[in-house]
Amino acid sequence: MAETIAEAVVAQIKQNLGDTLKVFGDGQLDWGAVAIEVASQLLILTLYVAVFLAAYGVVISVIRLVIGKRRTTHPLFGYARTGLRYLFALGALLVILAQFGASPDLLKATARAGLMALGFFVAWLVLKRLIAKTMSRYRLDASIRQLVENVFSVLTATFAVVTVLAQFGFDVVSIVAGLGIVGIAVGFAAQSTLSNFIAGITLLIERPFRIGDWVTINGQDGKVVKIALRTTWLRTRDNIFTMIPNDSVASSDIVNYSAEGATRLNIPVGIAYKESAKAAREVIMPLLLEHSDVLQSPGMEPRVVLKNLGDSSVDLEVKIWITPDNLDVQPRIMADVLEQIKEALDAAGIEIPFPHLQLFIDEAKGLKPLVEPLYPKLAEKP
Asked: Average pLDDT in the 43-54 region?
């Protein structure tokens, strides 16, 4: 079948070239006849297309009248409308091919291939819906569902292409064997892509993170919004999307803030050495207990501990817990808590120091000629 089509195409090209050479060889070219021929062909094509468009419009209008305007918003109506458009387009294509003298075998093969492609599309829609419902019923992880849907779509498209090619007489076995040889060559040239693909499968199976988790990958903080077969997509708190190759993700350190539920935030606060850490704790704790975003669950109560004795301050640390849902607004919660602590310490008269240096000079006789004219009594002191 494929050889017959190829021979017919070659014969038609030879005939067209021969006719063209004959015209130019005679030295006379009837441009008017050529223009009339082209215009007539375009007119006929336009009429065919107009007829099919009109028929499609009539059918859609009838369906809308029958099912009612409210049901036209249902997704099934959209799928049915797409299928009708495809059928009318296929019919128009067959008519146009017949006009240009296509053989009956070619028309039959085109019709079978078109209908089979439509059948695969319908089967893909139905099975995809059933698979999605089944996975939702068993509450499978979103990343696993995404993997299953991607694999199912690739397999369906592969079978559809093979079936359509078979209708035109192509030797599918030879094509698959040839693609296997080509695939080996492409594999060497696309090692990075294949590595990312395999790493993506590994991530979906091992699941170090899931869609919706807040993670740090390669120093990039973000929320996982998609785990594709080649890349992992993160969305930062600034609403910036980052695509990281899966090979890089699998080989880097991954910090998952959402894996174990609640997350603890440590907020440093410094007070002056003359102040009491206990007094500062008594001022800060009521704020933490009343804050709506701070967890008060057993084992996750807010705390204020003495962390360190610094050079210029007594360093306290405020420890609070927040829910995984609040990881999106973690900086806002920390800023809000810190601002309330600052206002409460100021109101209580507790000093929040800034770094300063106190200098002591022993036996600084070299400064006496400078100090004595200005401060005689100070210069007399030993």
From this structure: 81
